[in-house]
Amino acid sequence: MLRRLDLALLRLLLTRGHQPPIQQLVLAYTRAGEHGVLWHLVAATGALARPREREVFVRAFRVVALAYGANIAVKYFVRRLRPVVEDLPALSPTVTPLSFPSAHATTSFAAAAALREALPAAPLYAGATAMALSRVYAGVHYPTDVAAGAAF
C-alpha cells in the first residue's frame, strides 16, 4: 500500500510543472544541495558576515556535516534503491544508487533547525521543504525518502 502511494506521488510530481524555466530552476537548486554544500555556504557566509552570531553559524556547519554523515551511514544500512519509472527518467544525476533517506532533505532540515537561532525560521524551512521536494520532482527519490530525511 505505502509502496503504491509512494509511486503514485512520484509519478504525479514527475508529470507536472516541468516547463523549461521551472525545471532549470529546480534542478539548479537541487544540485546546490549536494552533500549539504548550499547549507555549508550559508553557515560559512554567516560566520564571516555576522561575528556576534559566529558560534551559531559554526555549529550549524558542524550539524550539517554530522547529519550528512549519519544519513549516509543509514543509507548504506537500508540500501533502498532509487526509483525507476520506466517512461519517466530521472532528471538529475546522483552520487549513489541508494535512496533512503534523502541526504538533501536531512541536511536541509538540519540546517534549518540549526540556523533558526540566527536567521528567520520560515524562509529556512521553506528552503528545506523546497530542497526535499526538488528530489522527488527530479525523480531521484520517493516521497517517503524525503519525508524520512526531513524527520531524521
Can you describe what's shown?
It is a single chain. This protein is an all-alpha fold and 152 residues long. The chain has one domain (34-151). It is built from seven helices and no strands. The chain has helices at residues 2-14, 20-32, 37-49, 54-78, 103-115, 121-137, 143-151. Helix 4 packs antiparallel against helix 5.
For this entry, give a set of tags.
7 helices; 0% strand; single chain; 152 residues; mainly alpha; globular
Helix/sheet category = mainly alpha
Mean pLDDT, as a whole number? 90
Distance between the termini: 23 Å
Low-confidence stretches: none
* Count of DSSP strands: 0
* Most strands sheet: none
Briefly summarize what is shown:
It contains 7 helices and no strands.
Topology summary:
Blueprint: H1 2-14, H2 20-32, H3 37-49, H4 54-78, H5 103-115, H6 121-137, H7 143-151
